[in-house]
Amino acid sequence: MTEIFTVIHNLFTKSPEIAIFLSLALGFWVGKFRLGSFQLGGVAGSLLVAVCLSQFGASGDATVKNILFALFIYAVGYDSGPKFFKSLGKQSLREIALAATVAIAGLITVVVLAKLFSLDKGLAAGIAAGGLTQSAIIGVAGDALSKLNLDPEILKTLQSNVAVGYAVTYVFGSFGAIIVCVNILPKFMGKSIRDDAIAAEVESAGGLSLLEPGQKLAIAHLVGRIYQVSGNPFPTVEALEKATKESPVTVEQIKRGNSLLTVAPDTKLEDGDLLLIVGRRDLVLELEAHIGKEVPSVPGMELIMQKREVIANNKNYIGKTVGELKSTIDDNLRHGVFVLSLLQDGKPTLVTADTILMEGDLITFYGAEQDVNRIASEIGYIVVPSDKTDFVFMGLGLVVGLLIGMISVKLAGLPITLGSGGGALLAGLAFGWYQQKHRNIGNLPSGASQLLKDLGLAGFVVVVGLDSGLQAVATIQSHGFTIFLIGVAVTIIPLLIGMVVARYLFGYKNTALLAGALSGARSANPAFGEILNEAGNSIPTVPFAITYALANVFLTLLGPLIVALV
């Protein structure tokens, strides 16, 4: 047994990255198992496996941990930037109240348990830092202790106990938040995170059905048909195209004999002409009774249709309704072009005559290449599709975020900082919002973004487990389970209080939104990652972003308060 331990220890010492990837592989495998309705999930599974591997001497690297977390939180903010800034205002008051509630509940829980179990100031502060997964408490609590004019030996012991309390409770601090937010909360609300996430997304889209990842739009309502003119019911192309006033059809090609004619509004139609007509299925099919029989296929009359996304920025059209645009834009300019969808502020919007075109709107046009390019150049500019990541934009965003995280402001004499996580989140939100307005820069494909979030968060918790697992187990063995169990209470109680208050006092009814807000109020990043996995979309991100930013301040302030009250 000793030889096996030595072999594994030497392997992890020579190649610590093996421990990281092994934790990920085994952790996501373990996370798939279910016990009734309970499932760990990949993030929690990776954390537990990392703690186990740490007993063989595997360790993490602080720099790697910071990089992985910065990538995760930046990608989260980037995807949610437009929604976040739109959500700010009076509607954010309940997120602010929830963050304050969880922080106050955490403070009361720590102080009461410290009194009951006769904990010293150092252990109490360390348990708060670990149980609430707010590492900044360690620094501010240590600084507060140093100002108490204590004997140097006593001060050293208390500061050491801060680290002990933190090491013992941090692992469950991460794991327990997942249990509450992902497993207990849906049962309490009576609805799953996934169902409510879908419902909230559909509601934000104005009732439109939204596509799942990997699905593509089936353009079934637009068709192209070839008809042979018989009886010459429409003398010109213009007369035929205006025959369906509700939604005009378009004549894309005319073949007379062996020649393709130039299509213009005044082009005369003759018996025997072959017409390629594009439009709504029902309207095109209705024309057969008036024009002539359908011809299955004709060599040389193949038409390749294009789908293009266009950003609206022409001042001549911004602020006008769709109805006004139809009368403003020349018929020749609109010829052969169909609008498939409209995104406003990143939200799908139903297109009606009263819909107002706003700058930055993303319009999806469909039609022949020359038609789509013609209208696109008039309305704005085409978004060039790409599966490449703009690393210049992303790298700059991360640098800006990390610099913001270094800024420290004193509040009541205490240094308050967003930290690298808060800074990266804020930069991600801002850069994501900017990219939504200027889509030809800063491209971050959804697949790349998802990889950053999955690998960043899971890798981060693995390094945390490798770093603190060995010390946590050793401390439990020497101090017993009392500190650990107190940490469990400090983790669970504020979350449960926040959950109940949010539901019955703050009026949260959507499980996905509450899960995001609750995990952010506890700065519980691993829990938030699992919530995103359950949701399958970004709906929980906006409330998380608001409460997470506040939690970095509120929870940090607990350090000196605990030192003063215990």
Would you write up a description of this structure?
The protein has 566 residues and is α+β, with helices and mostly antiparallel strands. It has 23 helices and 13 strands. It has helices at 2-14, 16-30, 42-54, 62-87, 93-116, 121-131, 136-146, 152-189, 193-204, 237-241, 281-286, 288-291, 322-328, 331-334, 369-379, 391-406, 419-437, 446-479, 482-504, 511-521, 525-535, 541-554, 558-565, and strands at residues 34-35, 38-39, 222-228, 250-256, 259-261, 274-280, 305-312, 337-344, 347-348, 362-368, 380-382, 408-411, 414-417. Mean pLDDT is 80; it is low at 206-220.
Major sheet: arrangement of strands? 9-8-10-7-11
Helix content: 55-70%
Q: State Rg.
A: 30 Å
Structure classification: alpha+beta
The biggest beta sheet reads: 5 strands, antiparallel
N/C terminus separation: 45 Å
Shape: elongated
Keywords:
single chain, 566 residues, alpha+beta, 5-stranded antiparallel sheet, 4-stranded antiparallel sheet, 23 helices, 11% strand, elongated
List the helices and strands and how they pair.
Elements: H1 2-14, H2 16-30, E1 34-35, E2 38-39, H3 42-54, H4 62-87, H5 93-116, H6 121-131, H7 136-146, H8 152-189, H9 193-204, E3 222-228, H10 237-241, E4 250-256, E5 259-261, E6 274-280, H11 281-286, H12 288-291, E7 305-312, H13 322-328, H14 331-334, E8 337-344, E9 347-348, E10 362-368, H15 369-379, E11 380-382, H16 391-406, E12 408-411, E13 414-417, H17 419-437, H18 446-479, H19 482-504, H20 511-521, H21 525-535, H22 541-554, H23 558-565
Antiparallel strand pairs: 1-2, 3-6, 4-5, 4-6, 7-10, 7-11, 8-9, 8-10, 12-13
